[in-house]
Structures are given as C-alpha cells and as structure tokens.
Amino acid sequence: MTTPLLSIRGLRTTLATERGQVTVVDGVDLDVQPGEILGLVGESGSGKSMTLRSILRLIRAPGRVSGQVLWRGRDLVPLREAEMRAIRGREIGMIFQEPMTALNPVLSVGAQILENLVAHTDLGRSARQARAVELLDLVGISAPAQRVNDYPHQFSGGMRQRAMIAIALASNPTLLLADEPTTALDVTIQDQILKLLMHLRATLKMAVILVTHDLGVVAQSCDRVAVLYAGRVAEYGAVGPVFAAPHHAYTLGLLRSVPDARHARQPLRPIGGAPPAPDTVGERCAFMPRCAYATAACATARPPLVSLSDGRLSACVHWDQLEANEWAAV
Amino acid sequence: MGGSMTMSAVAQSTANAPETGSAPGEPLLVVRKLTKTFARSRSLMDLVKGEPRRRVHALTEVDLSVRRGETLGIVGESGCGKSTLARCLVRLHRVDSGSVTYDGLDVVALRGAALRRFNRRVQMVFQDPYGSLNPRMTVRATIAEALSVHRICPRREMPARIAALMDLVHLPLSAAGRRPHEFSGGQRQRIGIARALALEPDCLIADELVSALDVSVQAQMVNLLLELQERLHLTVLFIAHDLRLVRHLSHRVAVMYLGRVVELAETEALFAHPRHPYTRALLDAAPELDPSRRGSAEAAVRGELPSPVNPPPGCAFHPRCPVAIEYCRRVRPELVRLRDGRLAACHLAATEDGLVQSTEL
After folding, report:
1. Which of A266, B151, B168, B300 has an alpha carbon within 20 to 30 A of B284's alpha carbon?
2. Closest residue of B to A184, CA-based?
3. CA A301 → CA A167, A283, A295, B238, distances in Å?
4. Region B82-89 average pLDDT
5. PROSITE patterns, alphabetically (chain A) (predicted)?
6. Residue B291 three-state SS
7. pLDDT over 90 for what percent of chain A?
8. In the prediction, which pLDDT does B10 show?
9. Which residues of chain B have a CB within 8 Å of the CB of A192?
10. Chain A, 66-105: which have a CB under 8 Å from a chain B CB?
11. Which ipTM value was assigned to this complex?
C-alpha cells in the first residue's frame, strides 16, 4: 500500500456545551490514500461531520481538537492558525451540505471563485478571470461566461452545489472534504453531483472524503468506507467487502435496516433502541446496548480497532461470528 | 427516432378509470382532473412594469384513485406537487378545479359538520413532528384534545383510550405525561401517528413520514406502519421521495412530475419495467445498495426541474428526456392505460403499445 495522503490517529474533539465539555469525536483512526474516495457513514450524532471539520480544525474554541492529523507527513493539530490557512482551502478544500448558507449571497459566484484564486494562486488578473469561467465549465454549468456574474440566489440548488465545488477547486486541492454535499438535493440532481465528483476525482487525481448517511451513496461512489458510531470508527475497509460481509454488528444492523426489494411489505429488521448521547458510553463497546451479539466481553473494555485481512479494520469483539448479509449472498 | 411525427390520438381508454387492472379492493378515494395553482407574490419591479400576476401550477389535472385497504405510494422530486396533493385531499387547500370523491362523498363541496366528519375519517401525519405537535402540551393533552374535539369517547373513558393508543404505537404509558421536546425524532412521529389514530380514521396520509429519520429508526417506523395497517385495515397514502421505502411499502405507485401524474402502476411492474422515461431516470438515479452493481459514469438525467410558474409546453419532461421527439415538445401526452394495465403519460410508450397510430416514424 502506498503512503497515505492523510493519516489520522487518535483524533479527539470536544465541544463546549451547557453540560460542559462533550466528546463528539472519540479517538478516530483513518487513512486516506491519494486519489481515493473515502466514505464516512453513520447516523446523526455519529461524529462524521465533526471528524471532517476537525481535520481542518474548523472547531470553534473552547471546543478542542487533539490527537494526530498527519497531512503528507506533517501534523496539522499543533499548527499555528497562519500556517493552517496555507493548507485549509488550498491543499485541502471543503464543500458543505447547504450551499446557500456556505455561499456569500451579496457576491457574484465569479467573485467568490476569484477570491480563492487571489488567495491561493499567483495568476494575473485576466488569467484569473479566464480560470473562473473555466472552473464553472468544469463543474458543468452551461453558458459559464454569462453565469459567472450571477449571484447565488439566481442559481438552483444543484447549480449552487456545482458553484461551491468550483470555488473549492480554484486552488487545485489534493483532497476535497465533502460534508453531505447531496443530502439537500433531489435524487436526479444528487446523481449528477456524485457523478461529477467521481469524474473530477479521476481527471484531477484528487482524493475525496465524502460524509453521508446514505449507504446507497457509499455503495455507488466510494472506494473505501469508514462506519462511525458514537464518535468512534466501528469498521473500515474497501466498500465491496464491507457491504458483502460486514465485520461489525453495527454495520450489519445498518445494512439490514434498509428495505430489500425481494421482500416487499415484510417487516424489516431494525436496530432496536437509539444511539447513545455523546459522552455517555464509557470504556465499553458503544454499540453494546443495541447489539444482538453482545456478551460480557463487550462490556469489559473499549474494543480496539483491530486489523484484519485485506486492510479491513473492525472494532467488534464478535466480528467473525456475524451472520452474512443475506442480500449479498444472492 | 427523429423527424416530425404526426399522431392521431386514438387511445381507447384514457384516464377515465385510473385504477390499474381489476384486482379486488374498490376505489375509496378518487381524484379527477384536480388542479391547484398558487398566486405568486409580485415584486415591486413587476408592479412598476405592470406585469400580470403569475401563478405557480402546483397540480395540473391530476387523476388517481386509491383502493380500500391498499398502500398507494406517491413519489417525485421536490416541487412535483406530492405534498400539495396530500393537502388538497384533506382539504387543507381549496382546489381550483377538479373533483375528489371519498367513499362516494364529494370532498370539495363539504362544509361544516360534514367536513369535520370527513376529517375524522382521513387523517394526515406530517414530516416534521416539531412543527405539528404543540410544544406546550403533554402527549396526553394532545391526544385528549383530538378525542374531545371530535367527541370520540366520553371523558371518563379517555385515560383508557389514551393508554390503548400509546400501546398501539409502542410508546410506554409513562411517556404520556411528557412534552414533545423530551422525545427523539422517531418517538415524536409515533406521537403524531397516535394522535391521528385517536380519531379512528380509515385512511392515513403519510407525507414524508420517515424522511427526517435515521435509517435504523426509519426501519422501526416502516414496521409500525405495516403492523398498524394490518391491524386496523387502514388505507394508506405513502408520500415520499425515497424510492426504496416506497417500493417496500406500496401496493401501487404513482410517479409525479411537475404537478402531474406521469405513471401509475403495480409496484413490482413499475420498478421492474418503468415505461415513462422520467420513472426510468428516477430509478437509475437512485443509488443502489449493492457496490458490485455500479451505474454508468454518466448521470441518469440531465438538466433540472423546470419552473412550475412557467411549465414547458407539450410533455413537461421533454427538456430533460433522452428520447423526446419533436411531437413531445408540442403536444401534451394524456395519462392513458397501456397494454399491461398501467397508466402512463408518454407518447412513445403509447405508440409502442399501439394505442396511438403514428402515420410517420
């Protein structure tokens, strides 16, 4: 395996709330290879968005990020803010779920691309102008030379997301962090945006971390996946094997909760109960109270993320005793 | 296919009888040519320029029927009119034209006590339980209010009735004394369902009931819906944008696009062989759960939804349709019954089935 582009070890993020400091990312380990799409999947509150923000230290004080975020061999956690700015938005770009709140409503889309070109490239004035139009064309906005002067409110939801991608691409990032980029979009537009991201990854050799709660999105667009639960990585591995034979009881539960076309109107097999509130788990498996496989061994200590074959990682004590995911068997 | 095409519409059976096939279960709710527009607020510039007041065409001549005891799924993307349709059916909106008949009752003309009796029989559950439950009222008070407004039972029987309803939606009785903010999203939806069921309706309209929920909680709600339908013999209108859920729950599915029904068929037939190009695009765009079956690198459909203020002429889907011909740009296709009994509003599907004769192809 090649050296990872990004290597996260023991990432821990705490937020200040009314109840004091709450841990929302609880010791996450992840690797991102150059040019791959890594999916971060989990239910709300699993810490997937917080993990993504913690990479770029987009956590407001007194919230704190600790652990190690090795970016091309350099740890981002202890960097000073000025040094961080040379990486954030330049080497590592980011796009968000709600383009309307992430875009500036009083600046034209072109102006917002130019802003990034001024900050992160040494192109001249006319070259920047041409590059802005080129970027809009690259993300599939028709008549880019005219649309470059439009304001975000003149764009539809899908086009705003394309514009946001164009802004992020202005600095030629090596890694793009995408936080639920298609969740607010309709399914045909989601399909367009995902295909665009996959196309850009292939042509620009850019790695992507894609945060989503949709297992279908992971299955269709990611190379590798990390399943998060209660701020911890439950399972990590290549998408095909993880979906075919989950090695964590939570992954299996998630996949089984989704309706299967061959058993219409049959009861589903949901995971009982609800995810734990942050910081209430303690030193045991976080999924234990909802798990059908739980034994005393799950309660004695926090199960470590163990390396299995083929680069698979699992934090499940009973990973080798799980049933197969039956739809995959057919 | 190209060039001009002249068609003489000789569809033997148009949308006069929108029930597919003749399976048991007579129609309970029948919608005919339902049209609803909303006035668009005029900007100052429009006023100065003397522009006419423009209208959003939310629903245009919608035809469909729901059979007693079935689950009819309604799918479509945002702005297709599925929520407006639901609201028209329970009379939260006044319709512009067209008819809604419920068990022989002319719903559009109902007033006063008759309307309240109808409202009791057809209950709606909303997507956002935060917005539809009163935050200051306990669950008990919320349900008791519904029971007393509609005079379902005498006051002394209410506690037993509330306990039975809580049990029905699998909430502990101890939860009855709590307020909405003390519950999770899934539990709040259960409260909304309990309130709707308090009126002993025979039809439940679920508008994006599970869309805001996490997948494991979604599955719990799907099971609850299946169980309730079985126990209470409910007729359900399940409105959602999630195709997987609609496929799982529905006996038949109606696909809407820009305020119109474009295809209505038995669920398996629709998913196995979509006949309208929009249905096909929708199915292709939905990400499949099996990573070994990846879709093409091309997006399933180009372009975006046209504005409902100014819908395109002819077939509303033609600007995005991969197989559209000149005729589609000019003439709007009617919802017609195809050979296999399903309904579709597509010139090409109708031609394939020999329902329209093309003099030139």
Report:
1. A266
2. B78
3. 45, 5, 12, 44
4. 94
5. ABC_TRANSPORTER_1, ABC_TRANSPORTER_2
6. coil
7. 79
8. 33
9. 299, 301-302
10. none
11. 0.88
Q: Does residue B22 surpass a pLDDT of 70?
A: no
- pLDDT tens digit sequence for B43-53: 788 788 887 77
The yes or no reply on domain A6-213+222-228 and CATH 3.40.50.300 is yes
Nearest to A298 by CA among A312, A309, A287, A313: A287
Q: Is the pLDDT of residue A329 over 60?
A: no
* B86/A174 Cα distance (integer angstroms): 47
Token pair of B211 as six digits: 């869309």
A44 in contact with B at a CB cutoff of 8 Å? yes
Q: Three-state DSSP class for A212?
A: strand
Question: Considering only CA atoms, which of A168, A185, A167 is closest in space to residue A177?
Answer: A168
Instruction: Please give the pLDDT value at position B356.
Output: 77
- How confident is the model over B338-346, as a mean pLDDT? 95
Q: How confident is the model at residue A327 (pLDDT cuts 50, 70, 90)?
A: low
Contact B285 A274 (CB under 8 A): no
**Which residues on chain B are in Cβ contact (under 8 Å) with A160?**
none
Averaged pLDDT, A46-70: 94
Please, which residues have CB within 8 angstroms of residue A223's CB and are 6 or more apart in sequence?
A: A33, A36, A37, A38, A238, A239
**CATH 3.40.50.300, chain A: domain bounds:** 6-213+222-228
* φ/ψ bin of A305: left (φ > 0), alpha (ψ from -120 to 50), beta (otherwise): beta
- The answer to whether residues A319 and A301 touch, using CB atoms and an 8 Å cutoff, is no
pLDDT-derived band at B120 (thresholds 50, 70, 90) equals: very high
Residue B86's closest CA among B73, B70, B69, B96? B73
Say which amino acid occupies A239. Answer: V
Residue to test with chain B: of A43, A186, A290, most B Cβ within 10 A: A186
Q: Flag whether pLDDT at A156 surpasses 80.
A: yes
pLDDT tens digits, residue range A223-281?
A: 999 999 999 999 999 999 999 999 999 999 999 999 887 888 899 988 988 888 888 88
Name every chain B residue with its beta carbon within 8 A of the beta carbon of A195: 297-299
**Single-letter amino acid, residue A97:** Q
CB-based contact A259 B222, cutoff 8 Å: yes
Best mutation site among A199, A220, A251 for testing chain B: the one with the most B CBs within 10 Å? A220
Say yes or no to pLDDT of A204 above 50: yes
Give this prediction's pTM: 0.89
Q: 3-state DSSP: chain B helix, strand, coil percent, rounded to 5? A: 35, 20, 45
Q: How far is CA B20 from CA A274, B25, B29, B65, B235, in A?
A: 41, 11, 14, 9, 17
Is there a contact between B291 and A259 if contact means CB atoms under 8 Å apart?
no
Cβ–Cβ below 8 Å for B298 and A219: no
- For residue A20, what are the contacts with CB-CB under 8 A and spacing of at least 6? none
pLDDT at A45 over 90: no
The pLDDT of residue B11 is above 60 = no
- A253 reaches B (C-beta below 8 A): yes
DSSP E strands: which ranges in chain A? 6-17, 20-32, 37-41, 64-71, 74-75, 92-95, 175-179, 207-212, 224-229, 232-238, 306-307, 313-314
Question: Would you state the pLDDT for residue B6?
Answer: 39
Q: Is A240 within 8 Å of B300 when comparing Cβ atoms? A: no
The answer, yes or no, to whether residue A22 has pLDDT greater than 60, is: yes
Handedness of CA B205, B207, B212, B218 (dihedral sign): positive
Which token pair is B298? 């091309």
DSSP B248-273: HH-SEEEEEETTEEEEEEEHHHHHHS
Number of CB pairs, chain A paired with chain B, less than 8 A apart:
136
Structural contact between residues B176 and B166, judged by C-beta atoms closer than 8 angstroms? yes
